[in-house]
UniProtKB/TrEMBL annotation:
Pathway: Carbohydrate degradation; glycolysis; D-glyceraldehyde 3-phosphate and glycerone phosphate from D-glucose: step 4/4. Its EC number is 4.1.2.13. It catalyses: beta-D-fructose 1,6-bisphosphate = D-glyceraldehyde 3-phosphate + dihydroxyacetone phosphate. It comes from Guillardia theta (strain CCMP2712) (Cryptophyte). The lineage of its organism: Eukaryota, Cryptophyceae, Pyrenomonadales, Geminigeraceae, Guillardia. This is fructose-bisphosphate aldolase. GO terms for molecular function: fructose-bisphosphate aldolase activity. Keywords: Glycolysis, Lyase.
Length: 334
């Protein structure tokens, strides 16, 4: 079982392929639908995700798909389960297992991720359904005026990620570790680098303390860049330099795959920054570098579809093209 989890971790970063994060909750996908006049109902959610999963040639660019629990049980128009469709295309099946965030008492609105209760039973069920990996997202924010992220928030979220990972591995699922430091704020790139380093160091200590096999995880970190409200000028090369330096300092060589989050960046920003990071990283780096994008893979396709059935084919082609661009960026070619 451990060998299979290690192989899944390697497969998710193989050959410049990356992960499609199609795990938006019903509420989150509803917000995205509303921007394009699409009604948020079961049928439209199924149609949109079916379009993504059936898009032409995506197995060349996508190594894995993170599903929301709803999609784990959904089927294509011809009755083929989404899980079976992905397996037939050689794409690893993943599942989001956290259940959202709650505020940590005594902090300035900082949060802890929930979902540990009953996780072992859910993971066992998902594994039987065909899932091979699972994702848990922790959310931290930089707010220097209010001392965020606090030591308490960092420790709490690191420990939750580690407990999640330990449970997943006990049930045969490769854990995707996602300590997401939000892009919101006016912080500098230097501040983002320091916070990212501190958070990742705490996460790996917690993983080791919880006896998690580091070779059988995948890391999903934020890219290091200034906050979205910062007036600090920066270029893709700056993002690459700070991100690579941070990873080299704290990520163990035992980690096989690192998949970057788009973190609220536009499609072009995320792709350009991924390309710069891969080009900047040493050729002899111990880990594969690629992507785990949600909106940065789906936005143009959602816009092209707009809820109209006759536009599904065109939207699928738009999605394939965006996946190809990110695959090329992960290979360091354009």
């Amino acid at each position: 079982m451990l060998d299979q989890m290690k192989e899944t971790a390697r497969a998710l970063g193989a050959n410049g392929k990356g992960i499609l994060a199609a795990d938006e909750s019903i509420g989150t996908i509803g917000k995205r639908f509303s921007h394009h006049g699409v009604e948020n109902n079961d049928m439209n959610r199924r149609k949109f995700r079916q379009m993504l999963l059936m898009a032409p040639d995506i197995e060349k660019y996508i190594s894995g798909v993170i599903l929301f629990e709803e999609s784990l049980y959904q089927q294509c128009d011809d009755g083929t389960p989404f899980v079976k469709l992905l397996q037939q295309r050689g794409i690893e099946v993943g599942i989001k297992v956290d259940t959202g965030v709650v505020e940590i008492p005594g902090t300035c609105g900082e949060t802890s991720t929930t979902g540990l209760d009953g996780l072992a039973q859910r993971c066992a069920s998902y594994q039987k359904l065909g899932a091979r990996f699972a994702k848990w997202r922790s959310v931290l924010r930089i707010d220097e005026r209010n001392g965020c992220p606090s030591a308490l928030a960092i420790q709490d979220n690191a420990w939750c990620l580690a407990r999640f990972a330990a449970v997943c591995q006990s049930k045969g699922l490769t854990p995707l570790i996602e300590p997401d430091i939000l892009i919101d704020g006016s912080h500098s790139i230097e501040r983002c680098s320091k916070v990212t380093e501190k958070v990742l160091a705490a996460v790996f200590k917690a993983l080791i303390d919880n006896h998690v096999c580091i070779e059988a995880i995948v890391l999903l970190p934020n890219m290091v860049r200034p906050g979205s409200e910062s007036i600090q000028p920066f270029a893709p090369l700056d993002v690459a330099e700070y991100t690579v330096r941070t990873l080299m300092r704290v990520v163990p060589p035992a980690v096989s795959t690192i998949c970057f989050l788009s973190g609220g960046q536009s499609e072009d920003e995320a792709t350009n920054h991924l390309h710069a990071i891969v080009k900047k990283a040493p050729r002899d780096r111990p880990w594969a570098l690629t992507f785990s994008f949600g909106r940065a893979l789906q936005s143009s396709a959602l816009k092209a579809w707009g809820g109209e059935d006759h536009k599904l084919k065109a939207a699928a082609e738009v999605f394939t093209e965006r996946a190809k661009l990110n695959s090329e960026a992960a290979k360091g070619v354009r």
